[in-house]
């Protein structure tokens, strides 16, 4: 049976598209479900006695601390509030019967905090580092209109960029000596997608992505696994989502899903719904970048307008309260 040239081109196109779809589906299924079920994901057994988690008192950070404790690792909890750290540490020790150590530092501060962290973790066999601490905008905004932009930009860089870099420097040498270790650097889906009105935030997360990519290549010969995490929205104080939904998981569900991907892919959106959404939008961004830009800009512009209306209402309520007090 002979085919015309047009039919051959059509068959070749169908075959190419089918192969592309099959490959993407297989990658998703393997990294999300199959690889872990076959025992191919990274085991935390004998990786080290301690795990260090930054931003450990809320959200994803706390969920990572609890998940690692459930695997028998002792936990170094690093965050800003001593009171919250003490409470989380007590709960983890009680529930998981592991040791904890707390370090209260503000990652928006300068480089001097890392001297203290270095002294506090000295002598600990650290097998896992979770670079989770981060901060974002109060609401999407044009760069020149960000409140206290100069001070905010420095705090953002210290918290999102300097923290990841310095914490890796602190733990890598001992991991190399033992030829084992795991570092998870929490970035964001905004690192790989257009994110207007969140320019500084997405840029710091893009740094985390590139830094993790090259660091993973550097230290793979030493037996160290370095993975970049690219979450979408999760129920947390930073996201301001208070209730879970189909695409907005609880922190523990996100972390449990992500832990199954360890060692199976360099960058992971973690939760299976996030992986589908990120895969869809990154492919769409390749084919039709203007579409993705329009979607993100429209969504973030709407969020900005709602936030500005709330702020205006709050100002009016405060002014009315002051006027009422004066009348009395």
From TrEMBL:
Gene3D superfamilies, per the entry: NAD(P)-binding Rossmann-like Domain
InterPro entries associated with the record: NAD(P)-bd_dom_sf, SDR_fam, VLCFA-Steroid_DH
Membrane-crossing segments per the record: 6-22, 182-199, 219-236
Domain of life per record: Eukaryota
GO molecular function, one term: oxidoreductase activity
Keywords: Membrane, NADP, Oxidoreductase, Transmembrane, Transmembrane helix
GO cellular component term of the entry, any: endoplasmic reticulum
Classification via PANTHER family: RH59310P
Family of this protein: Belongs to the short-chain dehydrogenases/reductases (SDR) family.
Protein name: Uncharacterized protein
Species the sequence originates in: Daphnia pulex
């Amino acid at each position: 049976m002979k085919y015309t040239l047009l039919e051959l081109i059509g068959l070749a196109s169908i075959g190419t598209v089918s192969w592309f779809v099959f490959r993407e589906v297989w990658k998703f299924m393997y990294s999300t479900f199959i690889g872990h079920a076959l025992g191919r994901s990274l085991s935390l057994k004998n990786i080290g006695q301690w795990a260090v988690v930054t931003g450990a008192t809320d959200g994803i950070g706390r969920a990572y601390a609890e998940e690692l404790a459930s695997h028998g690792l002792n936990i170094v909890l690093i965050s800003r509030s001593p009171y919250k750290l003490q409470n989380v540490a007590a709960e983890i020790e009680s529930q998981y019967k592991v040791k904890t150590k707390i370090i209260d530092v503000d990652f928006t501060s300068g480089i001097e905090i890392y001297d203290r962290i270095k002294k506090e973790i000295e002598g600990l066999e650290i097998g896992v580092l979770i670079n989770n601490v981060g901060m974002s905008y109060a609401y999407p905004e044009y760069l020149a209109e960000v409140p206290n932009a100069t001070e905010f930009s420095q705090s953002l860089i210290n918290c999102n960029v300097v923290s990841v870099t310095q914490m890796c420097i602190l733990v890598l040498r001992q991991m190399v000596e033992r030829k084992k270790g795991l570092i998870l650097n929490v970035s964001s889906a905004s690192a790989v997608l257009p994110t207007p009105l969140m320019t500084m935030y997405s840029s710091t997360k893009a740094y985390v992505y590139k830094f993790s990519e090259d660091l993973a290549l550097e230290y793979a010969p030493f037996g160290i696994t370095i993975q970049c995490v690219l979450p979408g929205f999760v129920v947390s104080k930073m996201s301001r989502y208070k209730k879970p939904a189909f695409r907005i998981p609880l922190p523990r569900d996100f972390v449990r899903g992500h832990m199954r991907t360890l060692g199976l892919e360099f960058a992971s959106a973690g939760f299976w719904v996030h992986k589908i959404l990120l895969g869809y939008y990154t492919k769409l961004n390749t084919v039709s970048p203007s579409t993705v830009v329009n979607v993100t800009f429209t969504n973030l512009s709407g969020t900005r307008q709602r936030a500005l209306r709330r702020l205006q209402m709050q100002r009016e309520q405060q002014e009315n309260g002051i006027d009422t007090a004066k009348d009395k």
